[in-house]
């Protein structure tokens, strides 16, 4: 791909550093070393690669959840953010196409009669879900009958499923595998209600920067870098997104 122009550099790194916002609640893409405090993961590695191409240092900024990361888009706190592309977020953020996809489905408790994803959206059904996650935003738009019980984070959503005897827990399949292990007799439903599109974004006014980001994402997918980083970080449950 082409070298970044002066306009691209000034839009994506106005402070002379590339400030990379990451969502720490997505354990598939980000992590924080408990000993050193250093950030790592597929999203972090891609942010550093982008900074290398721009010829500037990378500053990684961790946010506790995707809602906090998205909400900071208008404050000028970060230059590029690694988070799921959602129509609501696109009002403030210019997104690339996805670089990876993650299946979202349901975990149902022991004894549940539910057999398929389509059966969950019925009157009287209550679904635990982490608020402001990409799949919560999706379900908020698409569910016709079931009710969402929103709470902070995936850990609390699992606890809510159990404590309030809810009908299902919405989540990313790799995370639900861990929850399934903690709840004997529970089941993860086959299929998916959506595939979360993990993308890269920049504040909407940065037109030249957004165009370069889109080209960057297509380049790292086509060159095999995304697949290499998934393998390097030992991640299961991620799929390289198709070409835009």
Question: Would you spell out the secondary-structure blueprint of this structure?
Answer:
Blueprint: H1 6-12, E1 18-23, E2 31-32, E3 39-40, H2 42-54, E4 58-63, H3 66-71, E5 80-84, E6 93-95, E7 100-108, E8 126-130, H4 134-142, E9 147-151, H5 153-163, E10 168-172, H6 173-182, E11 187-188, E12 194-203, H7 207-222, H8 225-232, E13 239-240
Parallel strand pairs: 1-4, 1-5, 8-9, 8-10
Antiparallel strand pairs: 2-3, 5-12, 6-12, 7-10, 7-11, 7-12, 7-13
Structure characterization notes:
- This protein is α/β, with parallel strands linked by helices.
- It folds into 2 domains: 6-100 and 197-240, Periplasmic binding protein-like II (D-Maltodextrin-Binding Protein, domain 2), CATH 3.40.190; 102-194, Periplasmic binding protein-like II (D-Maltodextrin-Binding Protein, domain 2), CATH 3.40.190.
- 33% of the residues lie in helices and 25% in strands.
- It has 8 helices and 13 strands.
- Strands 1, 4, 5, 6, 7, 8, 9, 10, 11, 12 and 13 form an 11-stranded mixed beta sheet that branches.
- Strand 2 (31-32) and strand 3 (39-40) form a beta hairpin.
- Helix 1 (6-12) packs across helix 7.
- It is elongated and about 60 Å long.
